């Protein structure tokens, strides 16, 4: 092996090791505050306050195709890809004037949705071959079969919840 090939190979291995060792900081959701102060100054009313988190989807590894005896194509041919994310904590508060019919009973309404994990899987496809494996009784030629087609259903798993509240001054 030439010295240039050895150097290139060593540089390649060094880059692969550095890429494998580096673990990026992955945020499950990015907190965002929605600026609505311009509504207050423009319209002269109290604007609601909105704070939420933008989900950052993390794509997982697709399942490996499996080969079965007698099948020419792997199952599934198009694997399903898992995706996970966290729906961030969302808080919406808004002033509620004259709650009980009097200005002294101004209150505040709130909607609070705590952070929750959401998991999804993309659809997959199962395709059967129109030919069988080579048949010894047919001079080694494959036989024709009816092709098969199937779809793996997509999945969405999560349990989002929200709390609605109303507060009055005491």
Features:
170 residues, alpha+beta, 4-stranded antiparallel sheet, 2 helices, 15% helix, rod-shaped
Shape: rod-shaped
Q: Radius of gyration, Cα only, in angstroms?
A: 29 Å
Largest sheet features: 5 strands, antiparallel
Estimate what percentage of residues fall within beta strands: 35-45%
Order of helices and strands: HEHEEEEEEEEEEEE
Number of distinct beta strands? 13
What is the CA–CA distance across the termini?
84 Å
Report the helical percentage: 10-25%
Show unreliable segments.
Answer: 17-26
Secondary-structure-based class equals: alpha+beta
Number of helices: 2
Average of per-residue pLDDT values: 79
- Strand arrangement within the widest β-sheet reads 1-2-5-6-13
Description of the structure:
The chain has 170 residues and is an alpha+beta fold. 15% of the residues lie in helices and 38% in strands. Strands 1-2-5-6-13 form a 5-stranded antiparallel beta sheet, with no helix packed on it. The termini are far apart.
